[in-house]
Amino acid sequence: MAANYSDDIGPMAYPMKLVSSEIVEHMMGWNIPEEHQAMVHAHWRSFPAVSKYYHFILALIYTMLMVTSLIGNGIVIWIFSTSKSLRSASNMFVINLAVFDLMMMIEMPLLIANSFYQHPIGFQLGCDIYAVLGSISGIGGAITNAVIAFDRYKTISCPLDGRINKVQASLLIVFTWFWSLPFTILPALKVWGRFVPEGFLTTCSFDYFTDDQDTKVFVACIFVWSYAIPMALICYFYSQLFGAVRLHEKMLQEQAKKMNVKSLASNKEDASKSVEIRIAKVAFTIFFMFVCGWTPYAIVTMTGAYGDRSLLSPVATMIPAVCCKIVSCIDPWVYAINHPRYRAELQKRLPWLGVREQDPDSVSTSNSVTTTQSHTPNAET
């Protein structure tokens, strides 16, 4: 009878002792080999290991996002690059943004596989690959949004001599890719900063937890480079754009009052202006989603480097990371909903989508003809 009891924990049946040993609560990072433990910060080891079901749910979410991004951004690149009506300098930036979004999609299969293994596949090498893709796509997408804001401002405020040509657009696109490289290459080569697992330890980003001056300066610099500067540029160009539109409308109204007419703009000019304004609204909507998607993640990184780290649980850091991926998937569908010429092309090429949009060029032409015909009897009278 004595053999059925444990000497160290008192009168407990031996089978119960076996069961109790199987329900030991693991901590984060328990399944990472000893030689790779250095890549997991001590902050994460203070949390219980995330349930495998959470990992499976995250894998399911990323699978849906991957399919959505692949279809949406793939259609954007296909239609914008092959349609004659959309093959403009301004729309080159749209294609560039879709390429960055697709690059973020490429890392999603890695996370899905990581979720089933519950650790980064390939450990440090796999972590570096994942983080490099995320860094290039995230920083590149941010500065591309700023370039799109600049293009919208130039196109609408200076419609005659302010439009960007294709050579200038190509140079700006090359600039966006160079802009994404410094804070990708430096941590990848461990010259300054490094890439480490975060959240559920199945995603990777730059290190914002190591408590030394070098890491704190790195986090501050990448925050300014990848978030603050693009955000400031976007806010400046859109504020200038809206100011120019208001000033233009005010000047037209004042001149119309002096001439005792209802409006100085022809229907064709009104239609053209309306198309440009709708495109500007699309760009502003994407900027708003960029703010909603990346601001929480920026707050997480700054909190990790300078704030109260106890607030950053695995779940609290994974939610902003998922939001960033969601934005890259939604971007192309915003164009599908609002971009007039893109919707017209969708109606032609993919009628089964049920998109209904008149060709803006044909609408403006018919309006111009109607205006001419309505003016002719007045002239004869």
UniProtKB/TrEMBL annotation:
**Family designation:** Belongs to the G-protein coupled receptor 1 family.
Q: Which PROSITE patterns match?
A: G_PROTEIN_RECEP_F1_1, G_PROTEIN_RECEP_F1_2, OPSIN
Organism, as annotated? Papilio glaucus (Eastern tiger swallowtail butterfly)
Query: Residues in domain G-protein coupled receptors family 1 profile?
Result: 72-335
What is this protein's function per UniProt? Visual pigments are the light-absorbing molecules that mediate vision. They consist of an apoprotein, opsin, covalently linked to cis-retinal. May play a role in photoperiodic photoreception.
Give the location in the cell: Membrane
Q: What is the lineage of its organism?
A: Eukaryota, Metazoa, Ecdysozoa, Arthropoda, Hexapoda
Q: Name one GO molecular function term.
A: G protein-coupled receptor activity
Keywords on record? Chromophore, Disulfide bond, G-protein coupled receptor, Glycoprotein, Membrane, Photoreceptor protein, Receptor, Retinal protein, Sensory transduction, Transducer, Transmembrane, Transmembrane helix, Vision
- The name of this protein is Rhodopsin
Kindly indicate whether the keyword Nucleotide-binding belongs to this entry.
Answer: no
